[in-house]
Amino acid sequence: MVSANNYDFIFLQETKSTVNKVASMFGHSGFRNFGGVNVEGRSGGLFVGWKNYCNFEVAFACKNFIILEFIECNKILWYLFLVYGEPAAAKRRSIWTSLGEWLAIKNKPFLLFGDINQVDFLDDKLGGRSGVIHGAEWYNKWKNMMNLIDVPFKGPRFTWTNKRDDEDRLFERLDKAYASYDWFNLYPNVGTKHYPIQFSDHAPIEVNFSLNKLRKKKPYEVESWNLEFDDCLQMIKQDWAQQINGSVTFRCLCANSIHCIRDFNGNWHYDEKTIGHVFEEYFINLFSTNTPDLPSDVFMESHAHLFNVPLPSLKEGDISRLEKHFSAQEFRSAVFQLGPLKSPGPDGIPAIFYQKCSFFVKKDVTDLVLMALNTGNIAREINRTFICLIPKVDGPESPDQFRPISLCNVLMKIITK
Model-level pTM? Predict the structure, then answer.
């Protein structure tokens, strides 16, 4: 796994070996720089290794944590705390106290991660005894006192299991990452990826400095608060009068994305294209019918009674009203019936834009809508729609934990209204 992913840095816990012996195992992978703590008896042992271009130096090491300095231009920029929490709840408080003292002394941006060995909340535990979580109250107070911010994660929620069967099986989220506020300013796209638990009782955890960085095209969107200012309305009036071909768009970082998904065979997928195929297959199966097509004669026989049902016919007055062309007044009424701040469609223009700027844009927009209604010809750009996946639960893992919603353009809403 280390070689396949070409990691820059590794941290191993419970090595049950010496630092030099572990280093010899990973030297061929490029981890020429290393540090750690040797095994004591038959338990423990920590190892940290990094490649030559990573500017780390070991500042301190003990059996429960290692502190590294990240140095650039002979200056310490931030600290990395690699933690192995005590399995026994009674011994954990001394570890948090010691870590707190180091954090106060260093007074620099920092990242802290590892096997914390402490459940924060009931949501991070599945199975076992319910109720009070030993050590959680003190640990959460300590976290708040240290101003620790959770690093977001992707993948399976639980990172540890006792590997027992049936009702004795227990899952917990013990491996976590935290950072200081100023460290997040340095690396705003950081995130952790949880891999499935396979060969050990713990899941491998990957810290990725660009996990939440997604270079994708995001559609332009009018900010509704701008429309409260006269200067903005004046600018819209002037710009609307200009003859411009095309539309204004922009690119920005999109924080909301799906980095991994589990299919119904229990397999996890991390490739963006494969994730799309998993969702496509799920929704095709969901919205497809399994009812076989009936032969025409069988269908006619089974539905013959429907053809004998007397249906009322339309009166001439009703027909004339249906054939009547749509008016500008109906357009205005439809515009102001729409929620002003509802999410816009692909064109990025909410209903409040047409409501606030109707004096400037009314004629062009009215002509466009009436042409679509009276001729039945709708421009392709108007009829575009976003399909958005909304999570039904926190930390969704499979396609059935999302619900699709559609966001169409406001002009299309007006036409259909």
Answer: 0.52
